[in-house]
Design goal:
The chain is an alpha+beta fold and 709 residues long. The protein has 2 domains: 260 residues, Rossmann fold (3-Layer(aba) Sandwich), CATH 3.40.50.1820; 251 residues, Prolyl oligopeptidase, N-terminal domain (Methylamine Dehydrogenase, Chain H, 7 Propeller). 16% of the residues lie in helices and 33% in strands. The protein has an 8-stranded mixed β-sheet with strand order 31-32-34-33-35-36-37-38, with helices on both faces. Strands 3-4-5-6 form a 4-stranded antiparallel β-sheet, with no helix packed on it. A 4-stranded antiparallel β-sheet has the order 7-8-9-10, with no helix packed on it. Strand 20 and strand 21 form a beta hairpin. Helix 2 packs antiparallel against helix 10 and helix 5 crosses helix 6. The longest helix is centred in the first third of the chain and has 19 residues.
Length: 709
Amino acid sequence: MNHCKKVIIVLLIAAICTPLFYAEESALKYPVAKKIEQVDDYFGVKVADPYRWLEDVNSQDTAQWVAAQRKLTDSYLEAIPFRNEFRARLTEIANYEKYSRAAKEGDYYTFWKNTGLQDQSVVYIQKGLQGEARILLDPNILAKDGSITLTDTTFSRDQKYFSYAISPGGSDWREYFVMETASGKKLADHIQWAKFSSMSWYKDGFFYSRYDEPKEADKLKAKVEFQKIFYHKVGTFQSEDELIYGDQTNPQLGFGAEVTDNEKYLVITGWVGSANHNFLYYKNLESAAAVIPLIDKPLGQFVFVAEADGRFLVMTDYEAPNFKLVLLDPLQPQKENWKTVIPEARDKMDGVSYVGGRLIVTYLQDANTVVCVHDQAGQKLYDIALPGIGSASGFYGRKEDNEVFYTFSSFTAPPTIFRYLVKENRSELFRKAAVKFDPDKFVTTQVFYESKDKTRIPMFIVHKKGLKLNGQNPALLYGYGGFNAAMQPYFRASFIPLLESGGIYAMACLRGGSEYGEEWHRAAMFEKKQNVFDDYIAAAEYLIARGYTSAQKLAVYGASNGGLLVAAVINQRPELFQVAFPAVGVLDMLRYHKFTIGWAWAGEYGSSEKPEQFKYLYAYSPLHNIREGLAYPATMVETADHDDRVFPAHSFKYIAAMQEKYKGKNPMLLRVETKVGHGTGSNTSKTIDRYTDMFSFMFYNMGISPLFK
């Protein structure tokens, strides 16, 4: 996320849109959701919110309603005749040796390894390339029920200490701990209430970002504001940590901290939610100097890369929507003094690393990764040859290193780790997975289609070789389209059973992402959000028109902002889809900003507290545009009880409204994962459970019985 058994595909074609397994059954009896008299006035527009009570996730009423929903969903899924077959194949596919996160740390090499069905990967360390690998940290023993997730690891500059972050129950809240690298001894250090933070080591401690401790009852719901940077010294209590920087005048300003390789400077990134700009500050760690601003105006995005001879390499989209690399002098930070090292190119610059005297630059070329190497002055030297069309990530290292690691994967190629020798421009295999299927039996095609306004949109389509385009193939269309996030080829072992069963996986690279730089992103922000819905609808129409599938065999899937996407398009064009999976979605666009970190998304969506923005938010808000009389697809809404990013009440209110207003026979179900957050905490066993339910629900409601052999 090689050889496999042959798969016999049995397609049982239904004559009508309802699944043949379910056509004679009456509509499900849904748990009663009481309605309250709650009407809000938005600039003269009266908006009812009868399920507001479901926002109180701690109440007994909500707990009883959720329990009843879970009981209904479980009983429905348990009745699907081939559910166990999906589980068995998904388990078999998942049971392979996986590697990730390789890095060089001084004389040590580290990597994460999963032997197959371990819930979480284990951190290994070895002395030198030929040293014997030993376990440094096994997160599987942190909690008997697997509810504690390892999320991040770092080493001190001298590798004496190893620090790690955990997420209890999948929450965005993080706790930090410290170990001695050589002995594996866990120290008493314990940091709490960190969120959206990293650990950046300096001498015998590290910088991190945290919020004030919330009330226990509100820790998964309340707004998080006034983030601050602290320094923690190993061997001390968190109460003794030194406050480094904060802003008590702006509750929404957050901060990240990074120490330069020479440990001379602390570089601070200031961020305001999802706004398309950030600030940069720095502090000279060799003196008692205060924090000094580098970029203190909202000019654009500025990503610190490295320190070079007392100046800072920074990647920015200021006056360069596809990004460029500039050199800033901290003593003369005015923009007229910036020096362009690598200018903006046709393709979007996606990342830069400064390693071994070289600048390793990754670009997105039609959503695929291209990697180039430049000298320190910016002169291009050569490309890094990748194994094929796909995605490469990594290349992290310090400027004195002569080697780095990167990972390559594609839709049918599991992640493979390569060691890259910088001066030699040579890649060598470090670790490779061995999955239990034959990737040569599948083909990936990239196509381009026109959206409603004639914009050219890329889409990847994956299926078995020789598949007949007769409109009868089950297909899953995935999309996201927001927050400057690029959709690139990546491996999902859980999707292999879909492909083996004659299914199609399609991923559309919609506007709102970063595939083509900031202009592509801005084309689906604020009042232009409808563009991403149009892009997604056009992708479905393309798949149907070209015979890949039909409306009766097409499922649509997206998570988070993608959950919003799915819920919006089935309101607008329900007849295009047979099945829908809006997962952990932002579904109440009028109140999303009132919970947890939701306020931070106003820079992407807008806010209902502003008259003009309220109009377009209300026009597409999934919760507020559910209409009676529409032939909605079979829908399974997914959320998680520890999701403190997209508050679960979005999904609760949405499914309550769908169950009330939809009068057809297609099921409208709510699947609630426990001890999982916004993706975090979804370990191997929970992932198998989730995709077992997802694909069982999909095939069942398409009238297709997969037969694995």
